[in-house]
Give the backbone structure.
Amino acid sequence: PYVDGRDRVWRADGKTFTIGEDRDTAVFGSLVAWLDRSNNVTIRDLSAPGASDIVVHLPKPAIEYNFGMLQLWGHWIGISSGSASQGDAVTSLVTNYRTGEIHTTSGELQDLGDGYALLYQYVPGSMTEDGMSYTVAAWDFRAGKSRSVPVPLRNQVAIDGIGRVAWVSDAAIEIAVVPG
């Protein structure tokens, strides 16, 4: 019943929670997370107005993370840093804000699910006027393993968070189950 509007979150009944300008936000159920201008992600449960916010300190300053890419799933937050188009290595980080468990890998985080994430793994030196070439991978961050997902380049891709990846091909909507 909550919708991420970047600088605010709307509830289905019309109530609004304002976060402020220039914030990278993510929503999972009634939880809203936002990255501030330092290196903190704040998590608030909008269904529990008296509850204390949870603050997670990220290892790099906020300016080094890719704005617009903050993800939230359950007790996990994820974000990427680096710019492949600028020749930088792109890495993703997921952390459990309850336990402090952290996992990192190469690739740009596109979506976060229950124990896995969807990544774009860029091909070095492949920059064209259409952008960089990449492969799509499902990353089981607890096991530290990635598997390629056969998504054609530049096609929209999404996960349901619990084990399925979907994308649009030239002729249909394709769905694959993430093993594990």
In short: DSSP finds no helices and 18 strands in the chain.
